[in-house]
Amino acid sequence: MPETTPERPWIETPLLESASFSKICGCRVFLKLENLQPSKSFKSRGIGNFIVESIKKSSKSSDKKGEPHFYISSGGNAGLACVTASNTLGYKSTVVVPFSTKQYMIEKLKIQGADVIQHGETWFHADKYLREELLNKDSNGVYVPPFDHPDVWTGASTMVKEWESQLSIIDGGLNHHNEKTQADVVICSVGGGGLFTGLMQGLEETPNSKTKMIAVETKGADSLYQSIQAGKLVTLPGITSIATSLGAIKVCEKAFEYANKSEKVKSVVVEDKQAVKALLRFASEEGMIVEPACGATLAIAYENQLKDLIPNLNKDSKVVLVVCGGSAFNLGLLEEWKTTYA
Amino acid sequence: MTVMPLTPPSEPSLELDMKNGSVQDPDYPYPCPWIETPLLESPVLSKLAGCKIFLKMENFQPSGSFKSRGIGNLVRTAVEKAPSDTPLHFYASSGGNAGLACVTASTTLRQKSTVVVPFTTKPAMIKKMIDAGATKVIPHGNTIADADLYLRENLLPKDPFGIYVPPFDHQDIWNGAQTLIEECYKELNNEKPDHIVCSVGGGGLLIGICQGLDNISKKQSKQFSPHSFNLQSQSRKETQVIGVETIGCESFYKAIKAKSLITLPGISSIATSLGCVRIAKKALEYGLRSNVHSTLVSDKEAIEACIEFAEDHKVIVEPACGATLALIYSGRLQQVLKVKQDDKMVLVVCGGSNISVEMMYNWKKEFDL
Asked: What are the residue boundaries of the Tryptophan synthase beta chain-like PALP domain, all occurrences included (chain B) (predicted)?
């Protein structure tokens, strides 16, 4: 039975075939429900794996130190994933967040068992305090990077094998070549690019992979799209999108490499309004509340942009939407945005 | 934290009655109209309840509610029994989840389906039935009883291939609902939960759960030798079943108090999916057992639970389902039974499509939450 274990502080998430999305897109659309992860987002995989690997390294290392203590400067989904995974595995964690962090996110971090310290006006100040004041003074301290680390990517990559197995089972077993069923298209949102890089890595491990990838960002947080247009890594001057979880001013280099070299990747940008409309519709039709960052992916399917992005899709084509989840959203905001955007 | 993907289970370690279970045998020609749903541990609710809370996420069923199991099994069994290639047509009278489950299951099994809905049915619900592949959705009558009468007198007699789909009072429905507890048993590493909480409308779900628990106990007592007393007594611990209703549709609660079936004069709760004036006879039989408990929550508590659940778990459910969650959120659990910290309690998140974000806002205002 799949369960969180010392090797894996995340879960195998369900893959649901969606009748309503399939009808809109004219092909078979599946939802990979990463919003059901223990931390409510896909970050449980990447950051969970980083923490597992750090624990392994520390138990192997010859100088006998104490147990690792995990530090992260994120009041968002990465922070929640770090705290949830540390707690599941029985390790301590500390989160430093800027004063601007919403109180209910701080409560969520605390209920999972973290020390939460509020410091500084911006993320930059919080991170600086974490590194200089806390990490430097703790010989057992481990800094947890939100997205730019191979262990994070490897954790995210586990999703690929999962959906390939699930698609095979839905199709009634392995195909006549004894291969698992691949998705024709996968759609995911891109922030710092950790999820995207992980999925590309996972797809590389599949023999004869034919899966195409649509990487979605919102306008104002489109660091990958801008980089591809420029042919080099671009640092955005700032983030102007409401999809703050996608708000990395620069994607990781590996994400840019994958997107730039592969013909299988399409980078697209949607407006905030499209992302919000999609998440409002998702809440009403599917009964799940997700962040605008996740709404960006849903918008591609709701607006049926698929057929333009990937020609030759037919009714049997299989499309996986990564419902990446996220906690930085609630009913109150839903209500507020409904009047602003819908 | 546990989860099962929507995939067939691995080998059951216990020989459960899998004919009606969710095993997808590739050689079995009738697709299963329901899925194995995830069982998720909830740190927030565990903290509130003082024991380990697991959520059985029936809201992810193809029809949006647990009804996919019971009604799905009834439809599937009918198709299985009919000579092959008989074009069956399934008829349900329902303005809600039973109708949607009937249509969804019929479509999965490539059969026709017609739902007669009372005029009060919301357009969004009718649209969902049509989207799910209903052959016809016919609005008729002011109440579900009127709709049902029309169906039985005007539609069914005219269709030689017509099959009536009752909402809850049928053995095939209970057999389908039973698969829920079989799944929980596996997901909890072949252990029965200490407690299981579900909402009660007509009682189909509660009957299925009790029936399933009985079957597991029977199989277990066969498995253990008479010498392993310890194991035996442990495995034979009786699961406490708690049926929750809202005040205003407490047909189960009243029947247990009176020790006989009671017909309510009407329904006065917003949890319309629980709005059944008379429960199934079998539900009363189980309800009189010492391990089965009946309890009530107010509409306000149910709505409050829906709102809190949406904040904590990002999932929107209808008040009928909120009633189960309210047992924990309202703190009423203590009035029903004492729990220990290591106890495992399953809450059946029964789902339901009769909800929208707008409805939640309106209730939020109405109840001043």
From this structure: 36-351
**Substitution target from B314, B361, B362 for chain A, most A beta carbons within 10 A:** B314
> B46: closest CA among A160, A240, A112, A177?
A112
Cα gap B350→B59, rounded to integer Å: 6
Structure tokens, A23 = 């009808």
Whole-angstrom Cα distance, residue A30 to residue A322? 9
Query: Are B64 and A169 inside 8 Å of each other by CB?
Result: no
pLDDT band at B232 (very low <50, low <70, confident <90, very high): very low
pTM: 0.88
Between A and B, how many residue pairs show a Cβ–Cβ distance under 8 A? 106
Q: How far is B191 from chain A (nearest CA, A)?
A: 13
Q: Please judge whether B357 and A283 are an interchain contact, meaning their C-beta atoms are less than 8 angstroms apart.
A: yes
Q: Which two tokens stand for residue A101?
A: 């962090």
Would you state the pLDDT for residue B20? Answer: 39
* B131 interface with A at CB cutoff 8 Å: yes
Q: Any CB–CB contact under 8 A between B23 and chain A?
A: no
Q: What's the rounded mean pLDDT across residues B107-118?
A: 96
Give the mean model confidence (pLDDT) for residues B90-100. 95
Give the count of alpha carbons within 13 A of B248, CB side only.
18
3-state secondary structure A221-289: CCHHHHHHHHCCCCCCCCCCCCCHHHCCCCCCHHHHHHHHHCCCEEEEEECHHHHHHHHHHHHHHHCEC
Interchain contact A287–B (C-beta under 8 A): yes
